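Hi U.,

Before I forget, here's the chain from the pilot set. I'm dumping it here mostly so it's searchable later in email.
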Amino acid sequence: MVSVRCVQRWHPLGYDVLNRVVSVTGASVNEQYGYDPVNRRMWRPLPAGAFEITFHGIAGERLGTWKLLSGQLTNLSTNLYFAGKLIRQKQINANGGVEDAAVVTDRMARGRVRRGLRAYAWV
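Structure:
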């Protein structure tokens, strides 16, 4: 069992036979994770019995994240790719508002997320 420090506490990590983190347990956290056959994290439980499900494209890019609650899917974020590069990003914030952003790269292939007239460094 391995432990990881998270918010001033150590939490043990549980691994499966393929050495992927499948659980994090502790007094303040109880997370579980599910993976697809090519080792991409696909789901994790959220509070109130909901699940966060992530869909990936054939090349491995993250296409979107949805919340599954009582058999209903709610979109949390979507990404749009062109020629293997992320060009558009849409996220739904906690208030239900939509944040739409363009992702542009410079000649050094550094990505920037543009929201409105301001540019933020892409990490």
